[in-house]
Write a structure and sequence with these properties.
- The protein is α/β, with parallel strands linked by helices and 351 residues long.
- It is built from 14 helices and 9 strands.
- The protein folds into 2 domains: 20-174 and 337-349, Rossmann fold; 176-334, Rossmann fold (3-Layer(aba) Sandwich), CATH 3.40.50.1370.
- α3 (98-109) packs across α14 and α7 packs across α14 (330-349).
- The two termini are 27 Å apart.
Length: 351
């Protein structure tokens, strides 16, 4: 359970209406902004959770504190029914274990309901336009969570829906995962400022959100991967801006040993994401030097934490010895998806 001396000021529970702290933004000057010049009355009025860069440090800290409060409450017995009478539509284009179960159970724990919608039931953007899906669901439910291939789909849902939209994962980013990751780190290392996280592998959607939340909250971030698999240039540029604001380092490297030197956290992810399976053999060959194993751990701090967003391809990006070893917190990290999701839902849907 999280330390009672959580390093952020306590915030009131979301029982008197959705707070303005998560109000939508235009995304100007930011990466993955919610509208990027396509403003509508809905995105001006509603609150969404689409990208880490949509939120200030204070807003992220408030969400983390709320996650801690809701976790304490759950461990002590049960959560208050903050979302009684509320329903969440869950749109899935990709299969999921953690995203589906954590969101569905989060709604149940908070007194609400969740409805799973499979790819076959909607055919988002194919059988039915994204705009029409957003408008239809807005008349049935109080919020929409979407786990999609294309980030444009989740942005389009937010643009046309009249209820809050949550990005459960996209090809561009994974903000829900990043929030749960930082929450996990703070349970184990309460003094977040000045920690060093080393990401080993592909500069993918997980790395994107993790860089932005680390830079925003004052965590040094280094990433090591092969040439051609770096973070997107716009993401790296934004990460550099945020790191400069908070006074931390952001390094893009080739050598994984250099990246993990003095690291407090080592993070890795699969070498081949869903949708890129045709390149899996090629990627295995290219990424082989970037495996997180005992030899790499020896380069980091003695008490280093090892993280993975799962599912893991054991024997590829991470060895069994590390994944199941004393430094691994991957299952605590997975379980904390539940509590981070609760915080997002309570803020967006709570009345």
């Amino acid at each position: 359970m999280i330390d009672s001396n959580f390093p952020f000021p306590r915030v009131p529970p979301p029982i008197s209406g959705r707070p303005t702290a998560l109000a939508s933004r235009t995304g100007q000057g930011k990466i993955g902004g919610q509208t990027q010049g396509r403003q509508t009355e809905h995105t001006n009025q509603m609150s969404n959770f689409l990208a880490i860069d949509d939120f200030s440090r204070a807003e992220l800290e408030a969400l983390l504190e709320l996650a801690a409060e809701l976790k304490r409450e759950h461990v002590a017995g049960a959560n208050r029914p903050l979302l009684r009478g509320k329903a969440l539509a869950m749109i899935f284009q990709k299969p999921s274990l953690r995203t589906r179960v954590s969101f569905e159970m989060a709604m149940r724990h908070l007194g609400g309901d969740a409805l799973y919608l499979s790819p076959q039931e909607i055919g988002l953007g194919e059988r039915e336009s994204v705009a029409d899906v957003a408008r239809v669901l807005s008349g049935y439910v109080n919020g929409i969570m979407a786990r999609v291939f294309a980030y444009d789909h989740v942005r389009d849902l937010a643009e046309h829906a009249s209820v809050p939209v949550i990005n459960g994962l996209s090809d561009f980013n994974h903000p829900c995962q990043a929030l749960a990751d930082i929450f996990t780190i703070m349970e184990l290392r309460p003094q977040l400022q000045g920690l060093k996280l080393a990401f080993i592998g592909d500069g993918n959607n997980v790395a994107t959100s993790l860089l932005l939340i680390c830079a925003r909250l004052g965590v040094h971030f280094s990433i090591a991967g092969p040439e051609g698999y770096e973070l997107k240039a716009t993401v790296a540029a934004r990460g550099s801006e945020l790191a400069a604001e908070t006074g931390v380092d952001f390094l893009q490297l080739r050598d994984p040993a250099e990246a993990v030197a003095q690291a407090d956290i080592i993070y890795t992810d699969v070498w081949t994401s869903m949708g890129k399976e045709e390149a899996s053999e090629q990627r295995r060959n290219i990424f082989r030097p970037y495996q997180v194993n005992q030899a790499l751990l020896a380069r980091a701090r003695p008490d280093v934490l090892v993280m993975h967003d799962l599912p893991a391809h054991r024997g590829e990006e991470i060895t069994n010895t590390v994944a199941d070893g004393p430094h691994s917190v991957i299952f605590q990290q997975a379980h904390n998806r539940l509590h981070a999701q609760k915080a997002i839902l309570a803020r967006l849907l709570g009345e």
